[in-house]
Structures are given as structure tokens and as C-alpha cells.
Queue: 4 jobs
Job 1
Amino acid sequence: MTRPSLLDIRDLTVQLGGRPILQNIQLSVAQGEIVSLIGPNGAGKTTLLHVITGLVRPKSGSIHFGGKNITGWPPHRICRMGIACTFQIARPFPEMTAAENVQIGLWFGRRAKEIRRRSRPVGEEARRLLQLVGLEGKEETPGRELTLSEQRRLEVARALATGPRLLLLDEIAAGLSPQAVSHAAQLVRTLRDQGMTVLLIDHFLNLTARVSDRLVALDQGETIAEGPPAQVLHHPEVLSAYLGERPSKHAAGEDR
Ligand SMILES: Nc1ncnc2c1ncn2[C@@H]1O[C@H](COP(=O)(O)OP(=O)(O)OP(=O)(O)O)[C@@H](O)[C@H]1O
């Protein structure tokens, strides 16, 4: 039985600084699915995430979420619809404790009345989310004292606090030790077991094969392969994109 699609992107084109960044992207993510976007530096992965969250406006094409057309909506409205993201560079509020950082996510865009109606008090819910991401015992630790791996987990907890149906994770395993990467993989599996739909970016291919149902490979703003991890990771175009054996379309304007 095919699962209903939660996110549907059709014919998406993005232009930044007068240059095409994404071209004719088609992407569907089904309810409960884990999909990874892979591709070399500058492929357009982060830009695609930013278009989904409303940080970047597409030139053309559409984005539907839960059947609703959210194309061009502002970020706060998209977040309230149920899409949350973590950023490549984790930036917790440094002077706030881990629990306070999560509480900001719990308060985001909600009225006090709505917060009071919650079944769990905010402090308790923040502790539950910190436990879920493996930060139990760190509730009172200020953001600045957390390790990189812990800051990434805090980002995930903060994103979960907004109550998403779709979680976008940008490079949560980049720069981590092998053990911390395993923890990140376990975290993604735990989220899946709880029914979360996840779209993740994995430039270094640390997590993809371990956790994804499907991979979508981008290169120079276009989809070059899509399918089960084993198939996509051995696709000739994906191999040559990663090994750099293809002509660059934007060679003249390349800024990375
Ligand atoms: N605001 C912007 N203005 C102009 N060009 C931009 C802007 N943001 C990104 N780009 C360009 O868009 C292209 C895609 O960038 P993007 O960050 O989406 O790639 P990526 O696949 O996420 O790469 P990485 O793995 O290095 O994070 C790059 O060439 C980048 O320089």
C-alpha cells in the first residue's frame, strides 16, 4: 500500500543573485518516510530546505504540504503548519540552559491560553524532549557549554518543540565522531518509530544508508538520481558528481 504524500514539490525553480540554483525539482515525501538529500558542495540541498521553510522564495513551481499549497508562505506560518528545521550551524542561545532553549520552541507562535491548555507543563515537556534526543542530565547546562554533538541534539529538540509533522535536518552528523554519528542515526530511527516524517541533508553520506528509505541526489541544482540508498549510491552520475568528474555548468560563476 502506498503511503499518502505529506510534502509535494512540483517543477520548482529557484534563482539567487541572478543565477539558477535549483531547476525543475520534483520531490514527494510520504507520511512517515525518511528521505535524504545528498550531493556535493553547492548542489542546492540547503537552498531546497530553505525554500520548503519559506526562507527563500522560488521563482516558479509549487510546494504542497498536507494537501495545502504553502508556496511563498512566510517561515512562521509554515512552521505553524507543521514543518520544522535544524540549521547546518547549530546556534543555541548561549546563556540559556538547554531546557530554556527548548522552551522557546514550545512557546513559539502560541498564545499563553494555548500553552496553559497543554496536557504537560512547559518545563516537563522540555525535559521529555531533551530526554528523547539523549540530553537527559543536561537540562540546566547553558547552550555555550554543550559539545557540538549536544548542540545538534538541542537543535533537534528545539525543532520538535514546535510540534512538527515534517522535520528537516540539515547535516546533523557533519563533523561528529563515529560514535556521535551512531547516536545521530539512532535518534533519526527513534523519531521514525514515533511516526515522524524526516527529510535530511547528508553531504558526507554519514547517515543516509543507515537510516533512509530513499535518497534524492542533487548536482548543480538538478535531480540526478532518486531511489533506494544502495541504488543511488552506486549510480554513475552520483559517483562522478562526488568524484568531480563532470563539466561544471556554472564554472564561471562558482563561488564555492
Ligand atoms: N543567497 C544566495 N545568493 C546567491 N547564491 C547563493 C545564495 N545561497 C546559496 N547560493 C549558491 O547556491 C548554490 C547552492 O548552495 P547550497 O548551500 O544550497 O548548496 P548545498 O548543496 O547545500 O552545499 P553544501 O553541501 O556545501 O552545504 C551554491 O553555489 C551557493 O553559492
Note: Residues 178-193 form the longest helix (16 residues).
Job 2
Amino acid sequence: MGSGPNSKPKLVEGSLGYVLEDVPHLSDFIPHLPTYSNPLQDNPAYSVVKQYFVNVDDSVPEKIIAHKDSARGVHFRRAGPRQKVYFESDEVEAAIVTCGGLCPGLNTVIRELVCGLYNMYGVKTVLGINGGYKGFYAHNTITLSPKNVNDIHKRGGTILGSSRGGHDTTKIVDSIQDRGINQVYIIGGDGTQRGAAKIFEEITRRGLKVAVVGIPKTIDNDIPVIDKSFGFDTAVEEAQRAINAAHVEAESIENGIGVVKLMGRYSGFIAMFATLASRDVDCCLIPESPFYLEGPGGLYEFVERRLKENGHMVLVIAEGAGQELFTVSMQTMDASGNKLLQDVGLWISQNLKDHFAKEKIMPINLKYIDPTYMIRAVPSNASDNVYCTLLAQSAVHGAMAGYTGFTSGLVNGRQTYIPFYRIGEGPNKVVITDRMWARLLSSTNQPSFLISKGGNEDKKEEAPLDKLNGHCSDKK
Ligand SMILES: Nc1ncnc2c1ncn2[C@@H]1O[C@H](COP(=O)(O)OP(=O)(O)OP(=O)(O)O)[C@@H](O)[C@H]1O
Ligand SMILES: O=P(O)(O)OC[C@H]1O[C@](O)(CO)[C@@H](O)[C@@H]1O
Ligand SMILES: [Mg+2]
């Protein structure tokens, strides 16, 4: 079999610079696979829909801004049902696994995968893998049916459980092979999708007829290529409750400061969108935009000015912001190899209190709110539920049509199949030279922290984090 097809991009070139970054297909590496008519054509719900099946050549452009003479650029295969399928209904043994941190909508995706397989394609065997990747070889499976997933979308979390670490490709693929699983639906973030790519490589190396499908999940919105990840809108909406509380507290007391820490390990999307949505936020700090405390243009100067102007202020900080400012570095990793972060919310709160007390500028009243896990643990809102449904149904259509080694994702508002290597190409981050960050700066009128970093040198004055770690509540 040689190296798997995923290691070599499958590119189709057309005229005027058109490039299709295609996804692998089972028939690329297993010859003479039989095909069957799509059972959807006999499904009363769909049989009347005109052009329900996607044209085999349909693709979606990665970039939709074009110039008169620009090349057509990269495209992805359009998701959706095909005329021909590569699995018979009673042949399918599907498995679903959820990996990484929680995210609103996980249960909705599970539900819609199960219901999509049952109701659209007549599949009757769907297994849930307990506890993430390691569940393939260390836990039991549970049988999933439309009946037992019926109302799980109303609950946060994942009914399957999740985990970090424990990706042992050989053991996972052994388990897939031993159980006779031939469609694997893997729901998770960037790490999970990299793990899915390895499973796919091993499956193609063994020549198995198994479709490996990723469904992108991350509350941080840090997965590249896709428009946004499911659960992100819910997270932004839920963050409003914490920001509102911080604002109410801050404006009800003299020189009140409300500090809210939101998730975002490497990417500040939740903080940025929650700030833009709220309009009560005076300053938003994210990992992509380094800031400093002391001196002209620094945070202390801005906070003092805002308090003098308005008598109160709200500061939103993403958990990955300002990590470079800590005097004590904590080089610990979680089981997946993600760097564990120091509690920047607690740190910034303590530094603000110390600064205003030491400099005798004015007495401040600071309230620190850390809603991070509350935001992640809620069920998804209505629009995320719809989004989860489309992602799950697209994933099922793709697997039934024989595509494999792909992530089901929304690109420019259209459902597509994206090759794994594009999803694994590095985190999606807020680009601070783009318009969205400029919109935020003009909405909050906060400093850009780009002009002078002179005041940043006096870091010795800031309370070292190791002294504060005793108060940390969210890192074990
Ligand atoms: N490069 C990799 N190769 C194989 N497996 C990986 C890789 N990176 C991560 N994994 C596995 O994927 C699973 C989830 O990874 P991780 O904890 O990084 O979360 P994630 O999927 O990125 O989600 P999130 O960051 O949104 O919580 C873990 O079981 C981990 O072992
Ligand atoms: O669940 P854990 O391991 O505490 O991880 C928390 C991390 O997970 C995420 O929610 C998603 O990666 C990050 O925002 C956060 O840093
Ligand atoms: Mg991740």
C-alpha cells in the first residue's frame, strides 16, 4: 500500500488557476469496490426534492474575495448526498468518538450522526466509544440508537465522555478492525483531527474499507480553514452573562473594575467576539496582541484614565493573553501535550489592585469573574444546533459516498469536505492587522499596545504568579 494517500495532497487542476484540494476516496486504494443506489432516492422526505444530490464536480472556493484578473484559487469538495454510495445499509458498522475539551453542541452532533445514519441511510449499528481515543482500547462501547439519543442535545457535555492523551494509533486501529467498524466519526479539535489523520494513514496502510471522518470541534475557534466551529456562538452568547455581571458590579460601586477571564488558549476569538457583542467592555486582551502594564500607552495608564472618565470599567482577558509576562514559567503540559496556562485573570486582577494601592492613585473595587468552564459546559443554542445538524449530516453523506480522510466543515457558508492535512496546518488566530481587531479597538478605544513598550521593562514590580497559584481554581 505504501504511504497513505493523505501524505500526498490530492490536487485537481482546472483552467484559470482552479485547484481542487480533494479528499481521498476508498476507491483510491481499494480496487473494484461495488457501488449502490443511494437509499435517499426512495426516502419520502427527499424523493421530491429537485437536485437533491450534489453534482460530482461541485466545489467551494476557499477565498471568495476576487479581483478582475485573479486566479480562481483553491477549492474544496462540496458536501452532500451522492447518487451512488459505497456501503449497503446493513453493511455499515459506525462508531462515534468525542475527544479533547468540552464544547457546546457535542451531544447534538452525536444525535444527528446517529439519526442521520438511521433515518437517511437505514444504518442500524452505531457504537459510541467511551472516553475519547483511549476508549477504543480501554473502555467499553455503548450502542446508540435514535431512541437513546433523542433528547441529548438539550444537555451540555458529551454523553460519550472525552479525554486528552492516549492516542495509540496501532491499538485504536486494531480495535476498529477487531470490532468490524467501517465508518469512524471523530469529533474533536485540532489535536483530535491530527490523531484522525494518523488513524486514516494506518487504515489505508492496512487496506481496510473504513471511512475516517472528522467533525471539527473547538470552543476556541482555532481550527483553520473553516468559517467557525460549532459551539462558538453559544460560547460568545454565554460569555455575555459574565460580562453583564461584571458590568453591573463595576458600575454599582466607586471606581469599580470588573475583570472577566474567557477561554482561548492560543486564539482570542471568544474574547474578541464577546467584547464586540457586549459594548460594555472597555478593554479586551488576547494572546495575539501582546500588552504591557507600566508607562505611557500601558494598561495601568488606560485603566486610570477610564476610571476618571466613567467611574468604572470592564476588562475581558483571554486565558492565553499575557503569558509571556509571567516572571515564573510553568512548563507543564496536559496529557495531549498542550501547554498548561497560568491564571492570567487572577494575575492581572492582583497587579491592578497592587498598582493602584501602591501608587495611591485612587481606591479601586475590583471583582474578578472566571466563567470559563461554565461557558463550555452549556448546551448549544438554536443556531449552533442547526449548524451541528448540517455538519453531522454532511459527514454521513460523505462517508456513505466513500470519501474518507476528511473533515466536514463550513467554508464560506457552504458545507465542504476538507483534507485532514489542511486542518492540521496550525491554529487559526485573530489577525491583529485585520479589520475585525481594528473594529474592536475602535469600539473599546483601548490602546493597541503597539506604540511603546518602554514601560514593560519593570516587570519585577508585578506579583509573581507562583504566589497567586494557591488561589487558582481552574487548573489542576
Ligand atoms: N499530533 C497528534 N497525533 C495523534 N494524536 C493527537 C495529536 N495531538 C493530539 N492528539 C490526540 O487527540 C486528542 C485530543 O487532543 P487535544 O487534547 O489536543 O484536544 P483538541 O482535539 O485539540 O481539542 P481542544 O483543544 O479544542 O480541547 C487526545 O486524545 C490526543 O492524544
Ligand atoms: O479541559 P481542560 O484540559 O481543562 O482544558 C481547557 C482548555 O480547553 C479549551 O477549552 C479548548 O482547547 C481551552 O480553551 C482551554 O485552555
Ligand atoms: Mg486543541
Note: The first strand starts at residue 10 and ends at 13.
Job 3
Amino acid sequence: MNELFDRDAGGDREQSAGDQSKPSDDQADTPAVAIEGVSKTFENGTDVVTAVDDVSFTVDSGSVVGILGPNGAGKTTLIKSILGLIYPDSGSVRINGHDISENPTAVYEDIDAMMEGARNDYWRLTVDENLRFFASVGGEHPDAIEQEHERLLRKLDLLDKRDEQVRNLSRGMKQKVALASALARDISVVFLDEPTLGLDIESSLTLRRQLRQLVDERELTVLLTSHDMDTIQSICDRVIILNDGAIVTDDTVQNLLDMFQTQEYRFSVRSLSEALAADLRERFTVTELTRYEDRTRFVVAADTSTFFELTAYLEGTDIQLLSVETRNADLEEIFMEIVE
Ligand SMILES: Nc1ncnc2c1ncn2[C@@H]1O[C@H](COP(=O)(O)OP(=O)(O)OP(=O)(O)O)[C@@H](O)[C@H]1O
């Protein structure tokens, strides 16, 4: 049940006469987002760049999907196509069953976006005024959803800032106001572009936690891009990885973590000379090695027998073993492995 916005209570969303694409009530399993064969090329002088190449996927209502990819992979072009900001050369985009090219009005009722780098809010307006403004632009009467705004601001710890001009707030707070503005009306799909960019660790953790709570409570469907894999890993249910305009991976975060599980061991030792470090690298798969004064930490990928071989090797030297921990691959490493 959507706690912040009770969609059933509004009842003022009527199907437009020309809307042939709207699902009937019994089609409750219509995906929130359905992308079918979307392609887009750009002409750069004499070059033709295929930014998005026959991309298809669906997103179930209430799930959070991270769209990842290296620079130039086609993320922005794909997202702009989903938001109706550019027309793809071919393929279709449907939001809650509405085709964006056939019925953009119905789509815009359901979707909003928080864009990175763009000024999402009016900095001279207060937090409250921004929420009211964005709700009105989306066709809602701000007085009618005053309580929802209050709840939203409370969830984001912004209630005591509601009468502050946005320009006077910290970066983390501005980011939250941008999020609140995107969620200031009763939408069901939201696109968030780099929602935690530029935040310090604590603000980023807080925003991630609050965002995930809001998503769950409002049953929002979220498409999200971020270069911060911790954000992706902690918020997303699923990731779609693009490379050269095409999907190279589409799976749940958990499956990816399980699938790429390599056993790695993090050793912390004392008295590892340069010569022994070189020898170690020669004999074993050392993936990281960092030194701090007399202490060295290194990570080795190894199966059980190699692990015992390594500990026997260390025992035969002057190296003092301080600790060994097992270490699991995180999403960042998995992402690098996939796109490389
Ligand atoms: N308006 C445009 N005109 C010409 N080429 C474009 C245009 N927009 C994007 N491209 C090209 O399409 C490809 C995909 O670009 P896009 O911006 O979608 O990638 P991205 O994954 O968002 O990259 P980044 O992470 O760097 O933002 C790139 O090769 C880019 O140069």
C-alpha cells in the first residue's frame, strides 16, 4: 500500500479517449517499464555512432534497477528515450502500458526524474515552495497533498528546513530536496541520475537508506544510474549493464555477487621485503598489494590447496603473518570484469 500517496483515493486519472495503450484493470501484471528493440544512432560528421543498439527489457513495478556502463555506453541516450526527451530510431517505450510516443501525457503523469548536474530545484524558493511548484506542474493541487509533502519531508529529515530557501542548504540537503521534488506528486516510476554524487560518505549512506525506505513504502519503480557501486549495491534489486549500446548483463545484484564469487584472501603481514613481494607475485595471483610502514596487506585469489601452499610458503620465510581474512568480490569488481 502506498503510504505517502494513496493512488486509489485520487480517482481523477481518467483514460483519455485516444489512449489505446492503457492496460485494463485486469492486466495487473503490466510491467512498469517495457523497452522493446530501442535503437538510436547519431551522426558525428561522417561517422555514424550507434548509441543504443536494439535494447529490450522490462521492469516490474516496485523494483529498483541500476543502469550501468562505462562512459559512452549509451546510458544517457537510453534514459532520454525512456523519458521521452529524444525519439529513438526504432523500438518502443511503454510506461505502465502506455506507449510514450502514442500517449506521452499518460506517461508524464506516471514518471518523473531527478537529473544529475541539472538544477532540479529553484534555489530562491523554499523547500516547501519547490514541492508545491513541482506538484502543481505535474497537475496536482498542492493544498490537497500538503500532508503527503509533510510526510515526505519528515522521511527525508527535511521538515525543519521546509521554510528555508534551497540555496542556503548544504549539498546533501539540496540533493534530498531534488529527490523530494521528483517525488512531490503521485508518480509511480522515477529516474534518478547519480543521486548520491558529490555527497560525503555519511550523507550518501543516509540518502541511500532514506531512498530505499521511500521506494519500498511508495512501491516506486526506480531506474537509477550511478558510478558509485556502493550506491548500486545497497539500493538496487537488479542491474542492467550496457556496453557499446547493447545490454551485456541483466541480472539481480545477488545473482551477480553469487556468480562472480571468487575466493580471495586478504593477508596482513610484517617484514615483507621487495624481493619477497616480487617472488610472491611470481608464484601466486596477487591482486592488490599495499604497504604502510612495516606492514603490508595483499590480496590473493586462491583455491584451498593454493591457500595452504601460500601459508606454507610464508612460514618458510621471515615474513610475520598478522592476519588472514576471506574477501568477497563486490559489485565494482564484477562490473569491471564484465565490461573489460
Ligand atoms: N547528441 C549526440 N550527437 C552525437 N553523438 C552522440 C550524441 N549523444 C550521444 N552521442 C554518442 O553516443 C554514444 C553514447 O553516449 P551516451 O551519452 O548515451 O553514453 P553514456 O553511457 O551516458 O556515457 P557517460 O557515462 O559518459 O555519460 C557516445 O559515443 C556518444 O558520443
Note: The pocket of adenosine-5'-triphosphate is lined by residues 42, 44, 49, 51, 69, 71-77 (CB under 6 Å).
Job 4
Amino acid sequence: MADHLPEALGPLLRAARARLDAAALDSPNLDARLIVEHFSGTTRTQAIADPMRTVDPRAIAEIDAALKRRTSGEPVHRILGYREFYGLRLSLSPETLEPRPDTETLVEAVLPFAKATAREGACRILDLGTGTGAVALALLSAVPEAIATGVDVSEGALATASRNAERLGFASRFKALRSDWFAKVSGRYHVIAANPPYIPSEDIENLQDEVRDFDPRLALDGGVDGLGPYRIIAAEAAGFLEAEGRVAVEFGHTQRNEVTEIFSAAGYRLAGAFCDLGGNDRVLVFEL
Ligand SMILES: C[S@@+](CC[C@H](N)C(=O)[O-])C[C@H]1O[C@@H](n2cnc3c(N)ncnc32)[C@H](O)[C@@H]1O
């Protein structure tokens, strides 16, 4: 029988943490806090300042259900329905990858160039495989003069990206485009950014359960060697790049040499290489 959850905020948090701890989850403290705060509408400060504050019974039932989903392996942000990325709250849907902190490296890698380009008059950004819109919307938040097109082959992902753009106040500067990479793209861009699927097909089964079972396969599977999307991007980007524009790609931390070779063979020069917060190779920026 499930434990009865207390109705006072402090004890409720402790009980939630104990349940997740007992299920041997990686971050029981953080997950318990996120779940309790989200469904009770309370803040960390309230939990500290007023731990005996009573939580509504309906919220307790929702917290109970969320804890059950979490202990059966569903990622905490799928349960909440959103994830923070570059300071923006992005809604998720079954068709979108959960944006990861590592991808903020891609935003940081092109930001100085995007800002400088915007100062000169215009900055058009193409975000290939936009998912929730994470990369495009983060860049729009940091470069107020920029406009962005988010491309995805998934209709569901594009609907989520458009909703995120609308809710964050970027709708007038963000366009969602359904396209198989460049197939329907037109015009020229100062920045072409992509975090494409890069897992080799045969490795998908060996991914962590939370990734394999909850992130869409379309967002993960990069083909036989995981490099298929890079070959397409390297072969076609030049036709959509402004003179002196930049192409920036995220990749798996063991793929730096292969990605470099693919872009070098297509005539690009390396303009920058960036590691993620864990010190792994993560992003390369190219110019023609
Ligand atoms: C790794 S996810 C990245 C999502 C988002 N940019 C992020 O960083 O959180 C890759 C994205 O590429 C999209 N995608 C896969 N194949 C595609 C294709 N052929 N053309 C356009 N987008 C594609 C997927 O739907 C998914 O949204």
C-alpha cells in the first residue's frame, strides 16, 4: 500500500524525498522538490519559512501520482511537462527531445558572432532540428534584433516550438518550418545551428532507460554511424549561408574528428571548438 503523504509542506517534501530515495533514483532531493513545488504551487522559500503550511488535498493527490510516475522511471521533466533551458521555461511534448544543459554550449558558441552580426544590421538564424525550439529561442532571448527559423521534420515538435515561442513572447521573430533538413528551406542565414540526432542506430537500445524510453527516436537516431545528418548539413549548408556566416553543430563527445573531417571535406574551415560543462568535446563552429 502506498504511504499516505502528509499535508504540511515540510513533512510532505521529506516524505516525497524518502519515496524517491527508496526507489534508488539519482537525484531524489531535487526531483522531490521540483515535483512538490510544481504541483503545490509553492516555492523553496515557503518550504523553509513556513514548513507547516497546508497543501491542498488535490495537489497532494497530484504529487502522489507524479511520485509514482517518477519511481516507475519516467524522467522528472516529462512529468512536469517542461524543462528550463538557457533561463527559458520550455514546454515538452512526446515528439520533442528534452533540451539538455550541454546544448547551452551550442548557444554560447554562436552568441558572440550572432550579436556582432546583429549590430551590423541583421541576424537571421536557422535552427535545424529545432525540437522544443530550444536553440533558436535561447538565441532570440539573447539577441533582440535577431530572427529565427526553426526547422523540424516532426509536426508535433514544431507545434510545441511554436507554442513555446508564443508563450515566451518571440512569436513575431520565430518561424516554424516543416522540412527534411534543407528540403523546404529558402533564403540565406548568418547562423546555421544544429543539434541533430547523432546516436548510431545500433546503440539506441543501450541508452539509459530514461533517454531510450522517453526521448523520441527521431531525435536520437543518427543512422548507421550516427553521422548521417552531419553529411547532409555539410553538403547543403553553403547554399543557405550568408557570406562570412557560421555553421555550428553539436555532436556526441567521441565524434569530433569525424565531424571535422566531414565539414573539411565539404570545404569548411574550423572557426571554433567548444567543450560542455563536463569538459567533453561538444560543439564545432565552421566557416567557408
Ligand atoms: C537531438 S534533437 C534536438 C532538438 C533541439 N534542437 C534541442 O537541442 O533540444 C534533433 C531534432 O532533429 C529533428 N529531426 C530529425 N530528423 C530530421 C530531419 N530529417 N529533418 C529535420 N529535422 C529532423 C528531430 O525531430 C529532433 O527534434
Note: The CA atoms of residues 124 and 170 lie 14 Å apart.
